[in-house]
Write a structure and sequence with these properties.
Blueprint lengths: L10 E2 L5 H9 L9 E6 L9 E5 L2 E5 L8 E5 L3 E7 L8 E7 L4 E6 L5 H13 L2
Antiparallel strand pairs: 1-2, 2-3, 3-4, 4-5, 6-7, 7-8
């Protein structure tokens, strides 16, 4: 299980295991000219159960349980506001909430281990301000 299951912390882009990158690419979440900055999965045995990343181009939310369209790609220009609810508990994740220009509100979990939830949040905020 340890080989295939994601860690309980946010990965920096250069530390994402190759099998996770293959899955990310196979579901169409990553463009060829794109770089992942931070990645998190709350899946227990399969990242397809839920993964989230911020790249140099967009934020991605992938939730297999959502049915027909598990993949949501959000360009930074579509984000009106980003907020974080930090949770320092080992047992519960922090939550990032995106308010989009079209009125949608989307939230996803990120681990607070190593304060990477804050770095994930800041990576989104920094790119929105450009």
């Amino acid at each position: 299980l340890g080989i295939f299951a994601p860690e309980t912390s946010v990965y920096t882009g250069n530390r994402i295991p190759s099998q996770f990158l293959q899955t990310i690419e196979s579901v169409g979440a990553l463009d060829d000219d794109e770089t992942i900055l931070f990645f998190y999965s709350d899946g227990i045995t399969d990242i397809r159960d839920g993964f989230y990343f911020v790249s140099d181009k967009k934020v991605v939310i992938y939730l297999q349980a959502t049915g027909d369209t598990p993949l949501t790609k959000i360009p930074f220009d579509d984000i009106r506001e980003v907020e974080i609810y930090r949770n320092d508990s080992f047992f519960e994740d922090s939550e990032i909430t995106l308010s989009l220009e079209d009125g949608q509100v989307l939230s996803f979990p990120v681990s607070s281990d190593f304060n990477r939830d804050q770095k994930f949040f800041e990576a989104i905020k920094d790119r929105m301000d450009r």
